[in-house]
Design goal:
Pfam families: LVIVD. The protein is mainly beta. The protein has three helices and 34 strands. It has a domain of 172 residues.
Length: 416
């Protein structure tokens, strides 16, 4: 009898736990939680350093200059890679820059963001990189938020003595009700807040926020185009910012036009007067993360929905800009979760996140022809160079050689 009672109690306990778990399943879910990466204000001011090669922690954007590749380590700095032999790239050094996400290079001078500061480095000798200038508080709204995050942890920050230089995103189980409440609050806050051919200049990918055109560096933050006259390469002149709207994310240049990608659309600015960019037109779409590249009469935009990127379905939008004052949607194609993209002649390369690298023939934009699909790799951004294609994703640098109707992998470099 005693054994039967114990058995009944045990079964009852299992049923209780099972019911409790089933009840929790309707109340809780896994979310992406962003935790702040903090350093002291004193350390921040002395945060630039040249170090031996280090393992990468969180690969970001890539940049190509002459025979070198620069890979951003989100919020930490830049890894320098010698690419004299694309089949055997070699790590050279690590440039430690707190809060760094973007760079641009001209005539051996590298410009990098360090939160709101602009750092200038002389890289004429990559074995002896030197800091030549630091312009403080010139990138006033240069705040990069992880778009995949559902929650931000703001607690335990000593704003008097500490600075947030970036974010670490982890998966945690949280209350669905808490998430929905926070999402509504965020939406309320938003509503109320309302040279590729120049060998002396490097080349960034479609996710870049820095762009050098002639003697000017344009750096977009979440609201503005920050403009610097860099005729004197060591001493950039901070000019008046141009307000461009909300959620500006990327910048691309063709001719005397800048194309800005934002979470709300694509904005086109005329830089015929380079110190004073003037809005020409805009193409609006639903809220989504949005890099853009341009080739001839068409702008190619990838939209990534979900999380803070918004509810828009993911896809590739091709926009007719033959009338620059009235851009119009030409055609769209479904994608899974695209990030960066690039163009080389008639080839279009799309980094479709976990779905891999997709290669198309874009001769007829109304009917893209799939040339190849490199699956089972995580993809982030690409740079189509004259002789080979660079791609970064999941802490790996990939390089491909162009074929007439395809591309082939020639090397990989583990960055971690």
């Amino acid at each position: 009898m005693k054994n039967k009672m114990l058995l009944l109690l045990f079964i009852g306990a299992l049923l209780f736990v099972s019911c409790d778990k089933n009840e929790d399943q309707g109340k809780y879910a896994d979310y992406q939680v962003a935790r702040p990466l903090k350093i002291s204000k004193t350390e921040f001011k002395n945060s630039v350093d040249i170090m031996p090669p280090l393992p990468i922690e969180n690969s970001g954007k890539i940049y190509a200059y002459q025979n070198y590749i620069f890979v951003n380590d989100k919020f930490r700095g830049v890894h320098v890679i010698d690419n004299s032999d694309p089949k055997n790239p070699k790590k050279v050094s690590f440039i430690k820059i707190a809060g760094n996400v973007d760079i641009s290079v001209k005539d051996n001078y590298l410009y990098a963001d360090s939160l709101t500061d602009l750092i200038v480095l002389d890289i004429s000798n990559l074995n002896d990189i030197t800091v030549v200038n630091r312009l403080e508080n010139v990138l006033r709204d240069n705040v990069v938020w992880p778009s995949e995050a559902d929650f931000f942890e703001w607690e335990d920050i000593d704003y008097e003595n500490e600075m947030i230089v970036g974010w670490e995103v982890v998966t945690e189980r949280r209350s669905i009700e808490e998430y929905e409440s926070q999402f509504v609050n965020r939406m309320d806050d938003v509503l109320f807040a309302e040279a590729a051919n120049d060998v002396s200049v490097g080349q960034g990918g479609s996710l870049a926020r820095f762009k050098i055109v002639d003697d000017f560096l344009y750096a977009v933050d979440s609201h503005n185009i920050n403009i610097f006259n860099i005729a004197d390469l060591e001493n950039p002149e901070d000019l008046e910012d141009v307000y461009a709207g909300f959620d500006i994310e990327t910048i691309f240049n063709q001719g005397h036009y800048l194309f800005l990608g934002s979470m709300r659309g694509m904005y086109i600015y005329d830089i015929a007067s380079p110190a004073t960019p003037a809005l020409v037109s805009e193409f609006q779409h639903g809220t989504a993360c949005d890099p853009v590249v341009v080739d001839g009469d068409y702008a190619y935009v990838t939209l990534r929905g979900g999380n803070q990127c918004g509810a828009t379905e993911s896809g590739l939008f091709i926009i007719d800009i033959s009338n620059i004052s009235q851009p119009e949607l030409k055609v769209s194609y479904a994608m899974d979760g695209p990030y960066g993209l690039g163009i080389k002649d008639e080839k279009l390369f799309v980094c479709d996140g976990d779905s891999g690298l997709k290669v198309y023939d874009k001769t007829n934009v109304d009917d893209l022809i799939a040339l190849n699909h490199f699956k089972n790799i995580n993809t982030f951004d690409v740079i189509p160079l004259n002789d080979n294609l660079l791609m970064v994703g999941d802490e790996v640098l990939y390089q491909y050689a162009y074929l007439e109707k395809d591309i082939k992998l020639i090397s990989t470099l583990q960055l971690n």
